[in-house]
Design goal:
The protein has 245 residues and is mainly alpha-helical. It has one domain: Four Helix Bundle (Hemerythrin (Met), subunit A). The protein is built from eight helices and four strands; from the N terminus they run βαααααβαββαα. The strands form two sheets. Strands 1-2 form a two-stranded parallel ribbon. A two-stranded antiparallel sheet has the order 3-4. A hairpin with a 2-residue loop joins β3 (181-183) and β4. α2 (36-56) packs parallel to α4. The protein is flat.
Length: 245
């Protein structure tokens, strides 16, 4: 059963406009035998390769090259599947949403748990990074169900920017190492400290955005005219998304 109203998709990350041009270019030139599902599986395989590369780097730092390649493959598959479907006019909104974001959840687990099992950060901080991503994802999914708005990026940061950050992290490991910092808890890497900061920032942002969204919805749904107000807000969001696209 299809939802009554389609989701309004909002993507306003720093690289979104340039990335969209590049992805449409590739999608229009993709061989006919390649299907969106193939690209989804490719992205999932890239995430698995990335996680395995991180975990295997305990044996040799050269395995980080596999992690680096996996991140690139994950970006290509995950970013192109939806663009290919839209370019060919073969979108399946319900199926595509379910499969794409289920694979995203698995991809995040592969990548961040691979980092957690690597020798470069503590297991606990790897789990904090995964929790940070999942908290942001849960807010996005809950808001999508509540107001039919699917917002992909926050504060200019989306999945592509996060992957670029991970690529920079891998390159730094290959060139300068972990750069340990002595603390009262013992030696920590800079990524350990950064992971704690990321988790604290994401958690605080989640609480603030949740409170703000709850107040906005409460104000919209007071009185008999709340449906009209809600439709007006949805229309404005669709206009903004169209202008951003």
């Amino acid at each position: 059963m299809e939802p009554q109203n389609p989701l309004v998709r909002i993507q306003r990350s720093w690289l979104a406009a340039n990335e969209r041009v590049l992805l449409v270019h590739f999608a229009n030139r993709m061989p006919a035998w390649i299907k969106p599902d193939h690209l989804t599986l490719l992205g999932l395989g890239g995430a698995l390769s990335c996680g395995l590369g991180f975990a295997a780097s305990a044996a040799s730092p050269l395995w980080l090259c596999l992690a680096l390649a996996g991140l690139i493959v994950n970006w290509a598959g995950d970013s192109l599947d939806g663009n290919l479907a839209r370019a060919r006019g073969t979108e399946r909104p319900g199926y595509g949403f379910f499969v794409d974001h289920t694979s995203d959840i698995l991809s995040q687990a592969f990548i961040f748990m691979g980092m957690a099992f690597s020798p470069y950060i503590r297991f606990e901080t790897g789990c904090l990074l995964l929790m940070s991503y999942w908290i942001a994802a849960l807010f996005t999914f809950i808001r999508a169900i509540s107001v039919q708005v699917f917002q992909i990026s926050y504060f200019g940061i989306g999945p592509t920017e996060i992957r670029i950050g991970l690529v920079c992290y891998v390159l730094s490991l290959l060139t300068v190492g972990t750069l340990p910092v002595v603390t009262r808890l013992g030696p920590l890497s800079l990524m350990d400290l950064l992971a704690v900061g990321i988790f604290a920032t994401v958690l605080c942002s989640f609480l603030v955005l949740t409170l703000r969204e709850a107040r906005r919805l409460a104000a919209l749904e007071q009185g008999p005219t709340h449906a009209i107000k809600r439709d007006a807000v949805s229309t404005r969001l669709q206009d903004r998304a169209g202008a951003a696209g």
